[in-house]
Amino acid sequence: MRKMYPLIVLLLYVSVVYSDSHSLRYYDTGVSAPGSGLPEFSFVGYVDDREIVNYNSDSGRCRSKVQWMKKVDEGYWEGNTQNGKQGEAVSKHNVRTVMSRFNQSGGFHIVQVMYGCERRDDGSITGYEQHGYDGREFMALDTQTWTYVPTMAQAQITTQRWNSPEEQVGERNKNYLENICIEWLQKYVENGKEDLERRVRPQVKVSGQEKGDTMKLHCQVYGFHPRAVDVKWMKNGEDEVHLYETSPVLPNPDGTYQIRVSAEVTPKEGDSYSCNVDHSSLEQELNIVWEPKSSRVSPTAVVIAVVIAVAVVTLLAVVIGVFVYKKKQRDYKPAGTSDASSNSSNYPAKA
Fold first, then answer.
1. If DSSP codes are grouped into helix, strand and coil, which group holds residue 322?
2. CA distance 157 to 163
């Protein structure tokens, strides 16, 4: 396999101090069978989780994916279009080579390379490069020794040649990953600072789901930016809940993120559970208490409810009885004791 050349060759140093961790990553993809629905070759560049550029063999051009990437000069796009065309030729060769290592002469196969760098919030930097074949890791660059390590037997020929004194591919790529990549990352972050470093507070919703004698607690955290967030369940204000089910941090259409963290617990009387959220947009951590809404009714509660119901019905019967009795008393007229009663004004006159 021939070396996958770095796609970014233009160089501009920008000295900036950052308070957050940022990363620059590229994904190169080559396929063996055109017409599979995928371009024969493509590369996509990301700053953090924001796609910034892409190139594919169908369009034959490197294109911007965010508005702030238009701040780079015109020569950037032409230079990276040429890098894309060069990468396309290298990718075709690599796909055929790896297929031959597996004794494959046809079918759909895919070769992927992921490489990039990261500047952490403490100022330290790191680089990485991984190669995959048909969805499995093929080999990777060890950035301590700057040599390639095979993770499949079929990668040994390539790693031996790339690690040889004549090639030293890892040492050559070290300069890109530790210097050029970091310098471009700093430039990109400066250009997109308003977008990449904006602060949006997370919204938090907690809920519980009964599962026999246990309770499945869910903490949904959504609408936050940047991506980095720490979410955990706590018991009685202490970090005592250790078994979580954590979803990936997923992007929302508006550029914010969401995550769900669940924990299965056995609540006891007096226990309190809360979801703790730490995010760079917060002056202090959020601590949202879960308040159970019990669907079970204890026997004691049933007895009390029955007694109250009986008392209410009894009282109502008494009130109705008294009302009826008094009404009858008002309507009662005593029978007359002489013929004079028949001459009262209440009685019709004789015809």
1. helix
2. 10
- For residue 337, what pLDDT is reported? 36
Return d(Cα 25, Cα 27) in angstroms, integer: 7
Which is nearest to 229 in space by CA: 253, 261, 255, 206?
261
Higher-pLDDT residue of 281 and 343 is 281
In terms of Cβ atoms closer than 10 Å to its own Cβ (0-12, 13-18, 19+), residue 232 is middle
- Phi, psi dihedrals of residue 305, rounded to the nearest 5°: -65, -40
More confident residue, 296 or 129: 129
H helices within the chain, ranges in order? 74-101, 156-162, 169-175, 181-191, 193-196, 299-331
What length is written for the chain? Answer: 351
Q: Is-contact 252 228, C-beta < 8 A?
A: no
Which 3 state secondary structure label does DSSP give 268? coil
State the Cα torsion 306-312-315-321 to the nearest 10°.
-100
Q: Do residues 263 and 290 lie in contact, with contact meaning Cβ atoms separated by under 8 Å?
A: no
Contact predicate 187/12, CB 8 Å: yes
Residue 222 CA to residue 225 CA, distance in Å, equals 9
Bridge partner residues of 243 (DSSP) = none
Number of alpha carbons in the 13 Å side-chain half-sphere of residue 39: 19
**Residue 8 pLDDT:** 32
